[in-house]
Amino acid sequence: MDVLRPTLVRIGGRVYRKNLIQEQPFPQEEDFCAGPGDCADDYPCDAFVVEETERGFQSRVEVPSPLYKYIIGKKGETKKRLETETRTSISIPKPGVEGEIVITGQQRSGVVSARTRIDVLLDSFRKKQPFTHFLSFALNQPAIQEKFLQFKEEVLEKCSQDHGVSSSLFQNPAKLHLTLGTLVLLNEQEIQKACDLLQQCKEDFVDQITGGKPLTVEVAGVEYMNDDPAMTDVLYAKVRMKDGSDRLQVIADQLVERFVASGLMLKEWDRVKLHATVMNTLFRKDPTEERNNTVTGKSSFKERESFNGRNILKLFENFYFGEVQLDSVRLSQRFSSDTSGYYATSGQLSLS
After folding, report:
1. What whole-number distance in Å separates Cα of residue 62 and Cα of residue 189?
2. Residue closest to 216 by CA, chosen among 113, 299, 144
3. What order of strands is seen across the sheet that includes strand 88-91?
4. Which has the closest alpha carbon to 151: 274, 252, 254, 279?
5. I want to staple 321 with a disulfide (CB 3.0 to 4.6 A). Which of 40, 92, 96, 219 is the partner?
6. How far is the C-alpha of 203 from the C-alpha of 180, rounded, in Å?
7. Residue 101's beta-bridge partner residues?
8. Whole-angstrom distance, CA of residue 338 vs CA of residue 71
9. What is the pLDDT of residues 10-32, one digit of tens each?
């Protein structure tokens, strides 16, 4: 048909032009199921397993027991709504009992829809959980602790008149460390998964980078994290490889990359910020607080009383905390202590 001479159609005494409309069929993606009886909510079919049974279909998902309540909801309302809307039955273990949530239904599409919604709920609420563990390098060797206490004493002697500066801001010397990344591990299975991944990283790349030897680093100089040194929240000691190489940074970045890829850790930065917190305004209210960056805990930051760090930065810009041998990456448990005063270790990767 000539688009400049469209067909004329007479309807009810009026004349209408019949325009040509070309409908383009959308190609079906191989990663998705085409039929309404297969997949629901445009979810990839291979994202999880749906088994066919004598009574219909079912899907099982391992969920840490602390997250059950988010699927159940207040007075069971969330669970009931999911079951009603997807025409499925959802079986959840008793509170505190580790196990699987089992979704069953007559229609595969209903089971897939219920599982998809549960996965979305779990992902959302997991991100809201406070972290339970973190990957760390311990910096609490006696010589470093001694120099840190000297730093604390001199700062209080010379800068205690500066706004906000007090002894409550300083890190516990037994807990001096480098944090590589934080994790939310809600049961023993997830802790074991993290431990196994650490060992896999050792075999895959850590041993090759370290040559099976500890890393010798120097802790020297202080720096602040925010934009205005007169309104400082976190002051940290800088860490560098004694041989001038970037091996510590490479190991840190690759470890975080692996843990992010496994789903055990959320990606926050392109590169790990290697630093050892020495002063933190969070410690003012909670001396056991491990957070040493400005990424998490936004509500806590509103309650902070910043301190004027100008003189500290000027007087202690090149303060030398000492040299230390880093011999392991630890999976450290938040809010805990071992016999040395450092965080309890759930697992570790030995560098030597």
Report:
1. 10
2. 144
3. 51-53, 56-63, 99-105, 88-91
4. 279
5. 219
6. 19
7. 61
8. 35
9. 655 565 566 655 544 434 333 32
